[in-house]
Amino acid sequence: MRRSMAALAKTVLKDDGHVVRRVAIVGGTHGNERNGIFAARHLLKDTKRASRSTFETTVDLANPAAIAVNRRYVDEDMNRCFSREMLGRKATSREARRAEVLDQALGPKAAEERRMDLVIDLHNTTSDCGYALMMRRDDALSHALCATLQKQYEDVRCCEWDDKPDHATLPSCGRSGFTLEVGPVPQGVADAVTYQKTLELIDSILDAVEARNQALLSQKSSVTLEPLEVYRRVDHVDFPRDDDHVVAGLIAPEVIDFKPLEPGQPLLLGLDGECVKTHGESDLTPFFVNEAAYYEKGVAFVLAEVAEVGVEVVS
Amino acid sequence: MRRSMAALAKTVLKDDGHVVRRVAIVGGTHGNERNGIFAARHLLKDTKRASRSTFETTVDLANPAAIAVNRRYVDEDMNRCFSREMLGRKATSREARRAEVLDQALGPKAAEERRMDLVIDLHNTTSDCGYALMMRRDDALSHALCATLQKQYEDVRCCEWDDKPDHATLPSCGRSGFTLEVGPVPQGVADAVTYQKTLELIDSILDAVEARNQALLSQKSSVTLEPLEVYRRVDHVDFPRDDDHVVAGLIAPEVIDFKPLEPGQPLLLGLDGECVKTHGESDLTPFFVNEAAYYEKGVAFVLAEVAEVGVEVVS
């Protein structure tokens, strides 16, 4: 492997040279996010579409019980069941039991070697996030795939999860993996334009994995270092709430996904329309603005630091 | 009352000269439609906002059990519980029992005289319907209020329910009444801009009722006949479904709320993106396109005939 790399004063995510042998595409981790459910159903039927010569692709629906009733979850949020801590407990909910099964198929996290080299978990969100890949901060392959996608699609963004050692999301079971969030899409709804674009993005991701594999297998691969803008989750803001903790306010219209906050701009409004919280700082950027499922989690929007990292891309 | 009326070759909805004494504003008939829930909560707190000199306004939340769990309903859709047939049965579900209580407060439908002269039921929809008032075909007051609103707001539309003798919706309990649909708003979400506009529309509706009352009470009222474009619900189209009746397709992007269908345009797509149904006729117009709650009801979108009616407006 030949490396051409300028010295850059930033984080560099180094490609590990590992050929991707198994990719998992998963829909329906949340049972009311139809975009990913429909995409997974299509790929289960049209098996050729997700096939490539150098790796095996499996497609699955994560939470059939929740899909059947068109709800995010039946007992508890499955996408919070994949931490080592949760997987180490005796599972009591339907989602936790199903998470154990999926962890065996994708990971398992407890093992050094993971069954899946790459896990793509298909979600949708009511926030106006466009197409956002959400990943671990140290996941070099996922970052490189995102950098490759950005050359084709200007509305694709890279988001990084919290800096925690033990993530609880489904794609964290794989060696690499990310959540593909698309929005705005209401819960329970699929939109044809967003759906078609999601399938296109999946095609492009699988093509990029295939191209990297081919390069690595050819013994003539080269590595370039490419800049990638990342939105690094650092905090969140809750809704205004009344004395019974019931949501009693709204997100100010000026708070827009991936638009940096201005000093002093309104963040939250009361039901009477009065501003109840203004923002004093200017160095943070919101995303997941008004995601329906986050009302119960106490998140009106997430706050991110914007950073540039260097990503090794193999070709 | 002085009437100035040109002879028009169309339906004329005559004002009955009845002073409005009681108005009910209701939110949360569907527990995950936060826009109306938030508006009702605000009006319950700011009681002056919905007060006018000539009538009494009551504000209520229709389905607190569904609101508490952020779902459309707990046992069954409450907005299908208000038919005479349903109200005549022994109520077995939580929604049907609550519908009986509400029917006593708003109607009752079984009585000749109704307690409420006007019922405004606040909903939101994932469809891109803008601001649409949904009403009985013979409800002169609601049509007149819609005609008045359209002078102030160009994105307000009048829709008419099916031509059935026994409607099952909450506002059908009142002497007059309509559903105020606003969209697109995802389930479980409130959007500040839509919310503020909803409150403005409510203000304007109450102002229009007050002005009509004042005119009638002054004994110097006049009546003008005004044209109103109405979308008359006549049919609907279901999603493509697989052998197990599971939704297996999408609404074509060309199907847009209140945009007349073109002959031969695609209506529905399969999950592979292929057109599975084209439309041969051109005289119908869709609305409620991709309303999340209608997947279970077998409605991808509603089809309407567009008609012009004459509405008597008192001033």
Automatic annotation (TrEMBL), chains A, B:
Identify which cofactors the protein needs according to its UniProt entry. Answer: Zn(2+)
Q: Which InterPro entries match?
A: AspA/AstE_fam, Aspartoacylase, AstE_AspA_cat, Aste_AspA_hybrid_dom
Q: Where does Zn(2+) bind?
A: 30, 33, 123
Select a single GO molecular function from the record's annotations and give it. Answer: metal ion binding
Out of the domains of life, which is the source? Answer: Eukaryota
Looking at the record, the residues that make up the Succinylglutamate desuccinylase/Aspartoacylase catalytic domain are 21-208
Q: Where is the active site?
A: 181 (proton donor/acceptor)
Q: Which UniProt keywords apply?
A: Hydrolase, Metal-binding, Zinc
Record's cofactor remark:
Binds 1 zinc ion per subunit.
Q: Does the keyword Metal-binding apply?
A: yes
Residue ranges annotated for the AstE/AspA barrel-sandwich hybrid domain, each copy included: 227-305
One GO term of the cellular component aspect?
A: cytosol
The similarity comment for this entry is:
Belongs to the AspA/AstE family. Aspartoacylase subfamily.
Q: Which NCBIfam families match?
A: PRK02259.1
From the Swiss-Prot or TrEMBL record, give the protein name: Aspartoacylase
Species whose genome carries this gene: Pelagomonas calceolata
Q: What's the source species' lineage?
A: Eukaryota, Sar, Stramenopiles, Ochrophyta, Pelagophyceae
